[in-house]
Amino acid sequence: MSNDRKIRVLIAKPGLDGHDRGAKVIARAFRDAGFEVIYTGLRQTPEMIVSAAIQEDVDAIGLSCLSGAHMHLFPKVMELLKAKGVDDILVFGGGTIPDEDISKLKSCGVAEVYTPGASTQDAIAFVRDNLTRK
Amino acid sequence: MTFDPEELKRLEKEKARWEQQTLGSHLERAPERSDPFTTVSGKPIRRLYTPLDVPNLDYPEDLGFPGEYPFTRGVQPTMYRGRFWTMRQYSGFGSAEETNRRYRYLLEQGQMGLSVAFHLPTLMGYDSDHPMAAGEVGKCGAAIDSLQDMEVLFRGLPLDKVTTSMTITSTAAVAWAMYIAVCEQMGIAYDRIGGTLQNDILKEYIAQKEYIFPLKPSLRLVTDTIVFGSRHFPKWNTISISGYHIREAGATALQELAFTIADGITYVEEGIRAGLDVDEFAPRLSFFWDIHNDLFEEIAKFRAARRLWARLMRERFKAKHPRSWMLRTHSQTAGVSLTAQQPYVNVARVALQALAGVLGGTQSLHTNSMDEAYALPTQEAVTIALRTQQVIAHETGVTNTVDPLAGSYFVEALTNEMEEGALEYLRRIQELGGMVRAIELGFPQQEIANSAYAYQRAVEREEKVIVGVNRFVDETEQRPIPILVIDEALQQRQVERLALLRKSRDKDRWNRAMDDLRAAALGNDPWGKDLLMPRILEAVKAYATVGEIIGLLREAWGEYTELNII
Which among A21, A96, A117 has CB closest to B469? Predict the structure, then answer.
């Protein structure tokens, strides 16, 4: 990645969940930290998210889900990325997610999962340090 | 009956003397903490409140007596000396069967009313077999696809004795129709069916985001339910005008109050536009507040809301019936304040928030469970939450007298400022062309997003302390908290149930009901003519599913696309 290109992050809301406070706050925090942020808006299917990520040529995807459907939606996004041959987009997530599920999500390729109380600065630092596209 | 101006002048002098002599020398020896003295909403709070902070407080005008205009001190003359608030835990998960068992358990434990949580597909008008429902079935509420599920949900419950609240909005008309149908099967007459439908569509566009249709047809549907309710259901609250979701989305206490009252004004205007007399429907409008961490700010919000609404209803809308002036409210502790870190500490947060709701004069209360930063609550966690209300009611003594904090210079000053601040917002919304226009312009949405971001930044800079999150952190914490798990096989069972239902129901009746509803939905001048609810009721009785009914309305009315505001 060239030096003048900003890091591009897609903040996405998969599924029917309408809780968008966290997604918006994280989107704004990334923007204020100098990232290029694309926010999908609500009610995106995993297919829509993956195609937006490819189309927008993003470096990272942040998935937000507070409806309890994360164990279906997050792995589905990972599966579709793999099917499209994409292996260099960093995927992280957040929401009301029990600890037990976090390890399962990590084992299917979600790099980090944030729960209520997480700091936006931690997420920003994590994405900076762990980008696979350099 | 305000303070005597001469006495206030003397007091002002006395205060200046105190500041110079006692306070001044004290501060030299012992300076105050450097923390910002602000409410959870960021409002600065002064060191000391005296009559000088409420110089124009007029007892009969501004406070009055409980059960009388302007209801600042409460909507009933005896408040909790008569009866306690309704302890109503919002509840629903998995299947209708499982949720029915939870309801029976809660009633046995002393809960006084039911409150239904539907899963997201029901709230968004999709059946459990729709692709958009994948992964969501039974996850954040009970899976209800048709009247068949609703019959199971309420099986054996005394719906003639308890009231039921249903947290559902875009598809509220369908849920209500199903509830009415279940009550009919139980032989309960319309005029004895008591409960509340959330039905507040404006806050969906502003905050909760479970909208389906564009604003105009959505308001038409809400108005239709208000008209239907005012004609046939004297004990049913047709709408619960909700600040809760606005607050949870990040609003300050003042914004919650102002935007909710602005929504309320819009429903009153729509009811009048539909040809109703204000006193025909205003008594059935109810409210729903969030109760966040700041004890006095929350109490002031409840009191200011009652006074503001009473004044608006009497002065602006010329309502004559005292019940039309009364702001009756449900309230719930702030989900957003629960921490995933050291989750047992949430029990203390919830207790203090619930206390604020009671001191604020709520009619009904839900206390959150300590595990809800992770998932829907376990039975053990819900029981502690319910017991917290019972402790406040029976052990603390705060229920012995009406509105115990009235006359506190601090609480009255906060109450005044809350009302004045809300009026200022109402003026701005008026200037934009009313709340519907303000929503189209993204005004409340942007205000809330700004507040949410400001709050997050304050927490991350440690200007606001959250115990266990940015102070008193336990690095060794294991979080050994039990979590409720929803059976993944439920979706398949619901899909099979739906297939069976679609095969076995009376197809002619279904066809007729759906055609009739379609014609009414597409009709041009049906505003407030009570056309939709009777047809939705018939469709529900013909076992049309939520997805089928809402799908039909989606085709007729289209879908809403929101402005992406961050």
Answer: A117
